[in-house]
Amino acid sequence: MDSFKQLQNIFKGDRIIWIIFFLLCIISVLEVYSSSSILGYKSGNYWFAAFYHTLLLGFGLVAMVCVLNVPCRYFKVMTPIMVPFSILLLILVYLIGSKENDAARWIKLFGIIPLQPSEIAKGTMVLATAHILSQLQTPNGAHPKAFKYVMLTSGVLIALVLPENFSTAALMGVVVFLMMIIGRVPLKQLGYLCSAVAIIGVVAIMLVWAVGKSKTELDGALPAEKQMTEMVDKQQSVDEAQPQKEEKAEPVKRGGVLHRLDLWKQRIDDFMNKKEVPPHEYDLDKNGQVGHANIAIASSHFTGVGPGNSVQRDFLPLAFSDFIYAIIFEELGWFGAAFVALLYISLLFRTGYIARRCQNTFPAYLAMGLAILIVVQAMFNMCVAVGLAPVTGQPLPLISKGGTSSIINCIYIGVILSISRTAKKREETAYN
User: Fold this and answer.
1) Pairs from 49-54 (Cβ < 8 Å, separation ≥ 24)
2) Are 385 and 326 contacting, i.e. CB atoms less than 8 angstroms apart?
3) Are 196 and 419 in contact (CB under 8 A)?
4) Under a CB-based contact definition with an 8 Å cutoff, are residues 260 and 164 in contact?
5) If I label 359, which of 80, 114, 301, 386 is the partner at 20 to 30 A Cα–Cα?
6) What percent helix, strand, coil does the chain show, rounded to 5?
7) Dihedral angle over CA of 78, 83, 84, 90, nearest 10
8) Which residues contact 154 (CB under 8 A, 6 or more apart)?
9) Is the Cβ–Cβ distance between 104 and 147 less than 8 Å?
């Protein structure tokens, strides 16, 4: 009995949230081990990726237990600290950040520990939005000033994330919009926001299409210096009558934000191009992620091929991260994939139940904002894996192999559990 009480003291909070968390972690470890076989082959240690990911989840669990023991009122105090801290990190990533996939997204702490500031910015945005909406609540809904303050705070964070990580900026925008709906912001203001976003979106797409380069244009272009060198070489070959080796043209690498416009145009073009291509004509070199993800889903045959028996994991780039849901489809089948989606939906509905029991608006908005953040990101990832959305690069929360994101998502769950403890105590007091 004593050991059971000790476990109860450690694993406090809502039990259903705990069950959902552990189920996601179990699926995560199994699927990361299976989908990272190519990493194990290259390193010579097939257990390393799964062991490293399990270690990160262990650190996340420790952080989660620490956070759930923090009273909810202290989260509110952190708002004026976290907002400037997140802004500072997002600025530093442009100055000293390391690049991955041609995007500056990481900062190396002490030159060793990778930190992704956008992950911290997402939680900070939810925290600040919950703070503002709770402070400016009236009997008739949120005060009109709440909309301005939310847009100012979240707008700065989203604007700093946008140039190097469009999908994360879009995710943050969706989350803050849903939080304003829950926070009873006047519908008139939300309507103006939707109209402004629609206009900006149309202008942005036109800009991407006008300035961005397609794959064909990039593959066929040559730098001016290389063209001049080839002209000189050709002239020398004619004069000296010596055969020259033919060199393959290299695509132009464009600096600044232009390389992101090229990427966005290519992804939109690939997604919008719904022309059916015969299997023998499909180019898996240029569309490897989408192609192998489709093969993985098609080869699942509803029941799946079984855990650890995936074939496409050896061909699908980032199978352990961005496209791990396709591997889940292949190995666990349609029922397994539906079960994973149901876990995220259950997390959202259970958090909604916890939020309704809160007497104050701040913990309710904070819990719902964090749950929406996790679930919307999961939906983004799933839609990409099944071909319902363009490739974004968003990992599957608590399942994909990751560093900063895995630990921070555990902290988000810890905050929800802390709020569930407070709501439970208040409910018991009300009944007594």
Assistant:
1) 49/320, 49/401, 53/28, 53/29, 53/401, 53/402, 53/406, 54/29
2) yes
3) no
4) yes
5) 80
6) 70, 5, 25
7) 130
8) 125, 128, 129, 172, 173, 176
9) no
Contact 288, 406 (CB under 8 A): no
Nearest to 399, CA basis, from 373, 371, 378, 379? 378
Of 87, 215, 216, 99, the C-alpha closest to 152 is 87
- Residue 332's pLDDT is what? 87
How does pLDDT run across 202-247, given as a tens digit for each residue? 887 777 666 666 555 555 544 444 444 444 344 444 344 444 444 4
Of 147, 34, 119, 71, nearest in space to 407 by CA: 119
Q: Which of the two residues, 311 and 77, has the higher pLDDT score?
A: 77
pTM for this predicted structure? 0.81
Amino acid (1-letter code) at residue 277: V
Write out pLDDT tens, residues 396-420: 898 888 777 889 999 999 999 999 9
Which residues, other chains included, contact 216 with Cβ-Cβ below 8 Å and sequence gap of 6+?
none
Helix ranges (DSSP H) in 109-186: 117-135, 144-161, 166-182
Are the CB atoms for 179 and 372 separated by under 8 Å? yes
Q: What is the mean pLDDT of residues 357-384?
A: 92
Cβ(345)–Cβ(375) under 8 Å? yes
Task: Tell me the torsion sign for CA atoms 270, 274, 275, 281.
Answer: positive
Output the pLDDT for position 277. Answer: 52
- Distances 383 to 83, 262, 291, 387 between C-alpha atoms, Å: 31, 22, 15, 6
pLDDT tens-digit readout, 328-366:
888 888 888 899 999 999 999 999 999 998 888 999 999
Measured distance CA(394)–CA(175) in Å, rounded:
14
What element of type H or E holds 320? none
Q: Which of 313, 264, 251, 255 is nearest to 288 (CA)?
A: 313
Minimal CA–CA distance to 121: which of 113, 129, 111, 109? 129
Backbone angles phi, psi at 105, to 5 degrees: -130, -10
Identify the CA nearest to 294 among candidates 419, 391, 431: 391
Q: Which of 133-142, 189-198, 220-229 is predicted with the least confidence, judged by mean pLDDT?
A: 220-229
Report in angstroms the alpha-carbon separations of 406 from 57, 201, 243, 417.
7, 31, 56, 17
Cα–Cα distance, 272 to 387 (Å, whole number): 11
The burial class, CB within 10 Å (0-12 / 13-18 / 19+), for 126 is buried
